[in-house]
Design goal:
- The chain starts with 7 loop residues before the first strand and ends in a 14-residue tail after the last helix.
- The longest helix has 23 residues.
- It is built from nine helices and five strands.
- By secondary structure, the protein is an alpha/beta fold.
- It has two domains: 138 residues, Rossmann fold; 71 residues, P-loop containing nucleotide triphosphate hydrolases (Rossmann fold, 3-Layer(aba) Sandwich), CATH 3.40.50.300.
- The chain has a five-stranded parallel β-sheet, sandwiched between helices.
Length: 215
């Protein structure tokens, strides 16, 4: 949670294809610092010495190529396709991302608020360290269409497998403080601008958001 003289910490999440990255890009255009947890997680798996050691201890040296890069073929065969082992990997990665994120927040001096973007914000438990949570929501058929157009290597079955591993959309929405609808029919920009104004006005005082949460 934010302390005195630190920015409000707002989490933003959504199911695959919901468009949370697009929403974050709008916030970034408004000058809001955005921490992409998923991108940093991939980076830390090869640059964080503690995490690299933990991964090698758990999954063996073959998890990495001799040059230090991730052996994604090996991980795909032995980790990513195994739900139990993937949970173990996430249990190693998420805490190190959390440390990296907190260090990043400490550098955002003078900012009204920051955003932490993460696909597994609820699943990882990291939402508990944040002041408020935004969920970007879209119907599953819209999300599937977007993903298949964007990721030519994915199939409809693969999309459904990913959706099945994520928290159900209804539960995400129910747990959110704010919901941004991104269904290709509802304008997104006014929703972002409203929240931007709200967070700026409540900077340094999360309690001021209490009566204005939800939609």
């Amino acid at each position: 949670m934010s302390a005195v003289n630190t920015p409000l910490q707002i989490g933003i999440t959504g199911g695959i294809g919901s468009g949370k990255s697009l929403v974050c890009a709008i916030f970034a255009t408004l000058g809001v610092p955005v921490y992409d947890a998923d991108r940093h997680a991939k980076s830390l798996m090869t640059t964080d010495g503690i995490l690299v050691s933990q991964i090698k201890k758990e999954f063996g040296d073959l998890a990495y190529h001799p040059d230090g890069s991730l052996n994604r073929t090996y991980l795909a065969q032995h980790v990513f396709s195994n739900e139990a082992r993937l949970e173990i990997l996430n249990g190693l990665v998420h805490p190190r991302v959390g440390v990296h994120y907190q260090n990043w927040v400490s550098t955002q001096v003078g900012k009204s608020y920051v955003l932490k973007e993460a696909a597994l914000l609820f699943e990882s438990g990291s939402w508990q360290q944040l002041d408020r949570i935004i969920v970007v929501s879209a119907p599953v058929d819209v999300r599937e269409k977007r993903v298949l157009q964007r990721d030519k290597h994915r199939t409809a079955d693969q999309f459904r497998e990913i959706v099945a591993r994520q928290l159900p959309e209804e539960e995400k929405v129910a747990r959110a403080d704010y919901v941004i609808i991104n269904d290709d029919a509802t304008p997104v920009l006014p929703q972002v601008l409203r929240l931007h104004a709200l967070f700026q006005s409540a900077a340094g005082s999360p309690s001021e958001l209490k009566e204005t949460s939800r939609r």
